[in-house]
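Lab notebook page, bench 4
Experiment: in silico fold of construct C2
Operator: M.H.
Input chain length: 285 residues
Purpose: comparison with the prior construct
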Amino acid sequence: MAPRSIWKGAISFGLVTIPVKLFTATEEKDLSFRQVHPKDMGRIKYKRVCEVCGEEVPYGEIAKGYELPDGRMVILDKEDFESLPLPTTRSVDVVQFVPGDQVDPTYFDKTYFLAADGPGTKPYVLLRDALEQTGQCALVKVALRQREALALIRPVDGVLRLHTMLWPDEVRDSEFAAPPADVTVSDAEVKMATSFIDALAGDFQPGDYSDAYRRALEQVIESKLSGLPVAEENEDKPAEAEVVDLVAALRASVEAAKKRRAEAQGGEADEAKDEKPVKKKSKAS
């Protein structure tokens, strides 16, 4: 069952208009906890209280205020936001086509699926196929939740994805995090580091990974309900030691990585051998 669309509009592709629906592409899988009073299991509630008069204010009566540096407050209501002169309120305007690898992932904020709406199917397919053939992505402007944003549209698995982006002044300068220029490494150290990378290199398969922390929390919750202790996993913790010789440490890491990969491949080979179908003997004529 498809989720509900959160926005409807149109992509302006030159003189072509593509009606589309927007769907969130991701969902949080983290466990949700409530604040409770352990004594009687009552939920903790928070009251919205005005700091001036001390009265509790209903949610529907709360306004949005922008505080100026001098302390003055400007109140903005629903009409103020709706009357903003944004040409992208219900449209996705293509401003440029750019190679996808030129956009730093740091700029990406949220990801959405774009689906054709009604008569938009054919022009949707046209834009998707054109982007695939040219290897380009569409840089667009769009207004979502009362805010204009840059976004990137790219075709993935036959569907157009829209990635909203941060504005340049929202991305911090990384210069403060750079190591001192006088810190260098030797060619031997770089060679061993690249050997370790090669030993663990492979294609990205999202299904190979899962959230071990969430799984452990679920086990703790089940244990609390059943009254049985959580089964302990026998896991060898690596000994903590100060790394003095980088080359020696990396060499050991490479050997360990190769061993793990060989064991994994051996296990897969055994599984494949076990799954081979048994040939049936043909009946004598």
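Observations: The first helix runs from residue 78 to 82. DSSP finds five helices and eleven strands in the chain.
Next step: discuss at group meeting.
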